[in-house]
Design brief:
The structure holds two protein chains of two kinds.
Chain A (H helix, E strand, L loop, with lengths): L2 E5 L3 E2 L5 E8 L9 E7 L6 E7 L4 E3 L7 E6 L4 E6 L8 E7 L10 E5 L2
Parallel strand pairs in A: 2-10
Antiparallel strand pairs in A: 1-3, 3-8, 4-5, 4-9, 5-6, 7-8, 9-10
Chain B lengths: L3 E4 L2 E4 L5 E7 L7 E6 L6 E5 L3 E2 L7 E6 L2 E6 L8 E7 L5 E2 L3 E5 L1
Parallel strand pairs in B: 2-11
Antiparallel strand pairs in B: 1-3, 3-8, 4-5, 4-9, 5-6, 7-8, 9-10, 9-11
Classes of the chains: A mainly beta, B mainly beta.
Amino acid sequence: QLQLQESGPGLVKPSETLSLTCTVSGDSIRSSGYYWAWIRQPPGKGLEWIGTFYFSGSTYYNPSLESRVTMSVDASKNHFSLKLSSVTAADTAVYYCARSWVLDYWGQGTLVTVSS
Amino acid sequence: DIQMTQSPSSLSASVGDRVTITCQASQDISNYMNWYQQKPGKAPKLLIYDASNLKTGVSSRFSGSGSGTDFTFTISSLQPEDIATYYCQQYDNLLTFGGGTKVEIK
């Protein structure tokens, strides 16, 4: 059974870089043939797509966040990562990782609060 | 960018009612449309993919239809466990979500 688990600091200071990792179990990022994604949800608001990548290196970012987002993968650990730079309070959200463009499997989500 | 206009933003219906949610894309997205259910404090769950395909294990009272720019999501007979927020999502050009529809019991 495929499982995804987000991890990372729950509190980030304004202007710093938010860093999260999504660990995948039950499938291989390297050989699965699937794309992998990050999505976020500010408290009480809707879902916002952050970006999607493929193991081979193709990356696709939300144009509104593209200048601040970097996604990477560590196949040896079967996990992928998100970095969001220059964060503000508006980046406070639950961050989810998910599989594919169809988003058929999701992590449970992790709340990241941006505050000094 | 493709914009997704989802309506209504909220609705209240009785148990057993037929519930319909619509989503309109700002341009033709063929059938690259998915629908999700999200309960409070939980991650969204995929219900319908590619406009009309029911994910394995999902109740058959959920259905989807449409293509191009206009799509519909239907709950044939609303049950108490269906109380949630529902989102549409396109993936024809990058990925965009609709604003969500909060479904409540009357």
